[in-house]
Structures are given as structure tokens and as C-alpha cells.
TrEMBL record:
GO terms for molecular function: electron transfer activity; heme binding; metal ion binding; protein histidine kinase activity. CDD domains: HAMP (cd06225). The lineage of its organism: Bacteria, Bacillati, Cyanobacteriota, Cyanophyceae, Nostocales. Residues 144-285 form the Cytochrome c domain. It comes from Dendronalium phyllosphericum CENA369. InterPro entries: Cyt_c-like_dom, HAMP_dom, HssS/ArlS-like, Tll0287-like_dom. This is histidine kinase.
Length: 300
């Protein structure tokens, strides 16, 4: 089938194959680059926020708790601002009042929390379980589906590293009276030093970022298709003008010569390969004409 195609058709077929392969490879490579860029962006956002929350936790533990710890035994109600997890959560909730952060989430998901709002759901409990099973794991990240869309999360283990934390979480008889008055004796006890009791999880909405990456992909691919199409048309025009038309002209003259019209001339001024071919045909025509004249003289 390919043997029956003309040079122009064969060349166009090759160009189309090169065009399709180039677009396909470029599309895959570009998609991977943009997806990686989008994931790096949401990861960077999550890491900045989790570092900020850790700063709040550290300040609460080292300053606020120190100032208010003595009042926990005398106050009628527990002072939650002394708890790093509470401070970090409240600060983040204030941050979420800004429109651009309203879909961000922060939680110190705990298996046995004092405050039940920190209770880990099934998904979060599995993450805590992984941290407990392998203490070498210091971070888990991935994507999770929520009703509002897909989010990217980063989770880090939270362990009991300071002895004073056990004052509120070892046994009810050691806990401050204000804590028992506010939360009771059923939850948040039995913790031990160095135990991983929770996972610090920050969730960043990712659909907008990846949607932006998809729009960028569509735009760039559209430009590439347009550029490739223009290049193919331009190459096709140049090949037709500089090669195919000249070969067709030589073919037409050769047909005239083959029918005995020796007045036809392979007029080609160019010195490239096609010009050399035309010159060779002219020499062949001249030789053929001389041979035919000699043959005619002999016959006469």
C-alpha cells in the first residue's frame, strides 16, 4: 500500500506520525511535571501551616502552661488554654475565618482524648496505628476525599515527651480537679511516657491547585498543537515547492522525451541534488539524441 503512495503523501504520513508521537510524549511529560508542581505547592502549604501550629504548641507548653498550671487546682472549671493541642486548634480555627483558608483543616487526632472533639475517626485512627507500629515513620502524607472535595494531608506522630503531661493524663486521681470537673474521669487517661497518643494532621484542599494545573496543561498543549500544526503545514509547503513540484516537472519532461520529443529540455538552474538530476537527464537526452541520429544515418 505504501509503495503506491506518492512522495508527498508518504512525507505527510511521516509528518503526521512524528506530530502525533511528539504531542503524546510532550503531553505525558508535561502532565507529570505539572502534577508534581501542584503536589509540591500543596505540600509546601501544609508544611508551613504545620510548622506554625508547632510554634503555637511550643509557646503554650513553655509559657502559657507554666503561668497557669497552679490555677488548675483552684479554678472551678478547667483552663483549656494551658493545653498545646487546644491552643493550636483554636489558632487554626481563627485562621479558617479567612476566606482563602476556610477549607483547610487541622486536627490532633487522638485515640483517647480528654476533649472528644479531638477523637480520631476511623481513617485517622489507622494513621495513629501506623505510627505506633513503626516508630521510624515520622510523616505520612497522601490524599483524602471529603464532601467538599479531595484534600492533601500531612500527618506526624505526637508522643508524650514531657513528664508534666502525665499530670492530666495518667490516672484520674492525679489529674487537676478542674479537669475532672470539666471533662469527667472517662476519657484521656492511661497515657504513658513516650507513647504515641495522637497524629497531628493538617489537610490542604488540592482540587483548585490541580484544576489550575489542568488548565495550564490544556493551554500549553493547545499552543503546542497549534505550533506543531503550523510547522507541519510550513514544512509541507516548502517540500512541495522545493522538491515535489520540481520532480514532477522533470517527470513531465522525461515523458515527453520518452515519446520522441527531443525539443523538451530539463530546465533546472539549481545546483542541488535535483538540479544535478536534471543535468544528468539532459546529458542522457543528448546522448540518446546522438545515438538516434547515428542510427538513422546507418539506416539511410
Amino acid at each position: 500500500m505504501l509503495k503506491n503512495l506518492k512522495i508527498g503523501s508518504k512525507f505527510n504520513l511521516i509528518l503526521m506520525l512524528v506530530f502525533l508521537v511528539s504531542i503524546f510524549v510532550s503531553g505525558i511529560a508535561l502532565s507529570r511535571v505539572l502534577d508534581q508542581k501542584a503536589q509540591n505547592e500543596v505540600t509546601s502549604q501544609a508544611q508551613i501551616l504545620i510548622k506554625t501550629m508547632n510554634s503555637v504548641r511550643s509557646y503554650t507548653q513553655n509559657h502559657i502552661n507554666t503561668l497557669l498550671a497552679a490555677r488548675l487546682e483552684t479554678e472551678p472549671a478547667f483552663i483549656p488554654e494551658t493545653v498545646p493541642a487546644y491552643s493550636a486548634t483554636e489558632v487554626f480555627e481563627n485562621l479558617r475565618k479567612n476566606a482563602e483558608y476556610q477549607n483547610f483543616l487541622y486536627k490532633e487526632a487522638t485515640l483517647n482524648p480528654t476533649n472528644l472533639r479531638d477523637k480520631a475517626d476511623d481513617f485517622e485512627a489507622k494513621i495513629v496505628g501506623r505510627f505506633r507500629q513503626d516508630s521510624k515513620i515520622q510523616e505520612i502524607s497522601g490524599f483524602r476525599d471529603f464532601p467538599d472535595g479531595k484534600v492533601f494531608y500531612i500527618a506526624r506522630p505526637l508522643a508524650i515527651k514531657q513528664q508534666n503531661c502525665l499530670q492530666c493524663h495518667s490516672t484520674p486521681d492525679r489529674a487537676p480537679k478542674s479537669l475532672l470537673a470539666s471533662y469527667g474521669t472517662d476519657n484521656g487517661f492511661g497515657w504513658q511516657l513516650n507513647d504515641i497518643v495522637a497524629a497531628q494532621i493538617i489537610s490542604v484542599p488540592s482540587e483548585d491547585v490541580f484544576a489550575s494545573a489542568n488548565r495550564t496543561w490544556n493551554l500549553i498543549m493547545g499552543l503546542l498543537v497549534a505550533i506543531f500544526a503550523i510547522v507541519v503545514l510550513l514544512i509541507n509547503f516548502l517540500i512541495k515547492k522545493t522538491v515535489i513540484q520540481r520532480i514532477r516537472k522533470i517527470e513531465k519532461v522525461a515523458q515527453q522525451v520518452s515519446t520522441g520529443d527531443m525539443s523538451a529540455d530539463f530546465a533546472e538552474k539549481s545546483h542541488d541534488e535535483i538540479g544535478g538530476l536534471a543535468a544528468a537527464f539532459n546529458r542522457m537526452k543528448a546522448s540518446l539524441e546522438i545515438a538516434m541520429n547515428l542510427l538513422n544515418q546507418q539506416n539511410q
